[in-house]
């Protein structure tokens, strides 16, 4: 079982340099060094490598206080483009980014209910990509890679969508279909990891090394950041907070368990809460998730008592769910993201704020900050563009660690048997 | 926000060398290198430092296959002794270890209910320590340090027991009282961290880099190991799985919340389950926790239907609680420890085994192993002896990282405000 190597450190340092450049747009090496606490020599080496690869470029000079001019650096938009694909419940969206992570263009196709087969999805992706590349002939040959976000449990190493609880995918072989649809190297991941990557690069990750990003949408989940890195777990499915228990033996969840957080805090959970409060409420019939939430909010503002109670109760559930994360992980910070915050963020925030102290142990809550970020729904594609960029950098020999996806090495001196691996001889086998 | 330094790597490597020596008792440098994947040169340096400090010593020679003799190393029991103090609900126990972590002796005093003040506890610790040192005059001046495990949320940096839910301690200043009671440098921690440290050094930590150790006792909790290191969180209270929700608005928990895992899986939780099934059951009157569990098991074996149902239901709760950890963290492995496993491990194990697949998402459960370890209750003191040894090594300039306790550095470019730190301007302040 190997410790971290100096290569790992180099990769983590490269990540911090890149993140500083992307977050601050134009920086000197001295500013990078101040922000990252890396030595000036290390920064010079790492920036040099990235300039040589064309990912960064010089952007003029500024005079330092002593009067000596010093070089500015920025991401190089001319280096090429990245495709970011967001496959959601109801649509497929493809965004085109340049290497400075500026969004150039976007295409979107609706997914008819029941049409969520891998063939349809791949065809929609191909359609969007072709349209985009047709509109941008200047990028021909310059697309460096694509990042594709797929719902459910995605294994980026095996390129397989292991399990999509809301769909009917089980062990779907994605690689062939997607690589055929997209004419560049493809990196797959799930929306939780994409959002958390965005938060690590551009959000709370710049201020905290231990934090959780909570995503509220049709599905709900969390990104767990430990020591400045995204926790992926054994098979890239860490963060499935939506499928932890809120009420044992409670509502049936899309995953097959009962009483999961998602069944109370996800959109269908909010709908179920409203139905418990007002079984005949007219909004229960609104099928589209965003319409439902938007109209629920309007009803709440207009004084609809059932809508108000449903939102309050959702806030109570959310506070308990966040309290669980805080008590278990004792993070410095929690970011609440996801499209639901755009519509219902203020109401949920107020209720969580009222309740959170009761839901957290005194120790962890005394040092905690919580921030609700009104998201515009672009977080997943931004995160996938970052992951596509990281995959490209890895291919050219400049890896950064939030893309580290090597599966756990085989254990030395032991062997981690798959499945339930209770040793022969029963429970008393290990006694201390 | 600094990346890992090469000093961190050195410390982690030292930890792996120490762990290998302690686990295998007598090893060659080549064996250490094979076990840790560290280079022979690194192993030679690290072993050399530890020999120089007297923590390791040469232990003869063996012939390698080529015939050339090679040196064996082992921990040096003659280097000194360590005190490990376990302050539990009903007793104070002090164990004496040598530096090879062999247990030399033990003293124990009962704590009367209601006598859990810091003064009484300190006095009991002092009594036990004095008795032990009196019995071992040969150790005079050779006790290198003490590790003291205290229930509740302990802050090893500030030396304060922040919050003990089952007792009535809030922000108790421990240092003065304990340092007066124990004539050597003191390292405080909580039993969860102590148990997880033991598991990291001697148990699953030798086979897995991502795992969770679950502790079942009067209180319940978890040790979370990420990338080979114990997750402590912002204020050393990570792992409070016992105070995450199993049933929202359910049973009142000792922490003040409702429906926590501990209120179902801890001893008083099992008692409450039995009371729900058979409100007049005679075992409900057994006050002592171990007696209660032991007699419950005897009743179960004798065919007492209520006892059988209570244990089954406890297994169901436990499976759901473990499922939550698995879904959230996607670990390679879960170790179930704690004194309850000594009495009820086989029954709980069988039920968890039956139920766990239903409680876990298919991805994480397909690669998971779970092991119930019949513990003899010595885990906490062993873990505290390890932590005391680590604290000693840190004082002599040879730190190993599972003792890393520096609080999170102030964030660069941000500032992590304490408390609820929603930015001025409200929720829409950050929009992406
Ligand atoms: Zn679920
Ligand atoms: Zn509790």
From TrEMBL, chains A, B:
Origin: domain of life: Bacteria
Annotated spans, Disordered: 402-432
SUPFAM superfamilies membership: Actin-like ATPase domain, Winged helix' DNA-binding domain
Alphabetical list of Pfam families matching this protein: ROK (PF00480)
Entry-linked InterPro entries: ATPase_NBD (IPR043129), ROK (IPR000600), ROK_cs (IPR049874), WH-like_DNA-bd_sf (IPR036388), WH_DNA-bd_sf (IPR036390)
Family, as annotated: Belongs to the ROK (NagC/XylR) family.
PANTHER family: BIFUNCTIONAL UDP-N-ACETYLGLUCOSAMINE 2-EPIMERASE_N-ACETYLMANNOSAMINE KINASE (PTHR18964:SF149), ROK (REPRESSOR, ORF, KINASE) FAMILY (PTHR18964)
Protein name: ROK family protein
Species whose genome carries this gene: Brachybacterium saurashtrense
